[in-house]
Amino acid sequence: MSSLEGRGLSCTRGYATLFRDVSFRVGAGEWVAVRGPNGSGKTTLLRCAAGLSRANAGEVTRDGALLYSGHLPGIKDDLTTEENLAGSLALQGVVAHGPSITEALARAGLGKRRHLAARRLSAGQRRRIGLARLMLDPAPVWILDEPLTALDDEGQALFTELLSRHLDRGGLALLATHHDLAPPPARELRIGA
Predict the structure, then answer these.
(1) DSSP one-letter code for 48
(2) What whole-number distance in Å separates Cα of residue 31 and Cα of residue 183?
(3) What confidence tens digit (pLDDT) does each residue in 68-84 have?
(4) What is the DSSP letter of 115?
(5) Checking DSSP bridges between strand 16-27 and strand 3-13, what pairing results, if any?
(6) Cα(190)–Cα(140) distance, rounded to whole angstroms?
(7) Is the overall model pTM greater than 0.90, yes or no?
(8) Structurally, what CATH architecture does the domain formed by 1-64+140-193 represent?
(9) Domain residue extents for the chain
């Protein structure tokens, strides 16, 4: 069973305390919404949970492979849509064959743009590469920072569907989001003033 837990996390940047003594637990089939005002440390908390940044105090434990997606889409402008998706999966050790990549991109609304350089995509289309990645990466632990940014209503609905399926399969998610999603979060974790 997958799990993600943070205990007593505190983080400062320079002289500013972003958050202090934050704890959370996310179990299989659950997602937790991280909420707070801009600059309150949501991204930093997610990076600590993913092991990409170090908290000043506290500990994070995780059981299960991790898929992390930051608030920027994390794609290379010179690579095609298809190459970006294949590359991000390969970095995770996920082997995806041409037909599965083609199908995921089509489902994400990028079928006709799979051979375009990413620099020619809109912000929402760039985000849709991430939706295709969610379809193909089997990692049970999702840590996602504002996954709905730049997505239109159709893209947001697809994300909601992918999240629901992930949870139904026993996956879990820790998401920083300002949006209300279905299914509703198991808990909200509020940080900052």
Answers:
(1) H
(2) 9
(3) 999 888 899 999 999 99
(4) T
(5) antiparallel
(6) 24
(7) yes
(8) 3-Layer(aba) Sandwich (3.40)
(9) 1-64+140-193, 74-137
